[in-house]
Amino acid sequence: MQARIPAALFASVALAASAGEWKELFNGRDLDGWMSSTKGPPVPGWVVENGVLKRADKAGYIWTRERFGDFELELEYRTEGNSGVFIRTDNPADPVQTGIEVQIDKPSEPSRHSVGALYDLVAPSRNAAQPGWNRLNIIARGPRIEVRLNGHLITEMDLDRWTVAGQNPDGSKNKFKKPLKEFAREGHVGFQDHGAVVEFRNIRIRTLD
Prior knowledge:
By secondary structure, the chain is mainly beta. It has one domain (22-207): Jelly Rolls, CATH 2.60.120. The chain has helices spanning 13-16, 95-98; strands at 23-24, 34-35, 46-49, 52-55, 62-68, 71-79, 83-89, 100-104, 134-141, 144-149, 152-158, 187-191, 198-207. Strands 1, 3, 4, 6, 9, 10, 11 and 13 form an eight-stranded antiparallel β-sheet that branches. The longest helix is centred in the first third of the chain and has 4 residues, at 13-16. It is globular and about 45 Å long.
């Protein structure tokens, strides 16, 4: 089991930061501000329905054109299966090796691949997901990342502890070809196409100083 980092290390990450104004990433009408992995227009499988961004058919990943460093990201999602929210992704054409994924899936027992996990890195402390719409908050500031699901702090990590390629601090293996400590500290936000229908709404972000 992934060793948990003491909560005291993270307790004031959001509160200690001076937060900017919230910025809407999705306007509820169209895909303005979003792109495909090749930086062109999003593939038609991503659609807007009743103010909701939906992966309705084979579509590939979808990305913000803008890059973000230290931030709080807030959104709501509803899913029929596997998807993910990628953050600080340096190269959208290679998201698995240049970004960090917060797993989205149906409710299940906690693991490094379950809903709310920092995928292949840290398991959530609990299953905080529910059927229907879920509220997800991701805070990234320097090396520290927090995930809150439906108001519960469930996942935390300090990137500086990941110093060996392909290995987590507890000795378990991961899929990454370089240490997470060396990952870019800013990049694109993106949503994964993993074959399931998934919906997002109320997507907004604010920068942290």
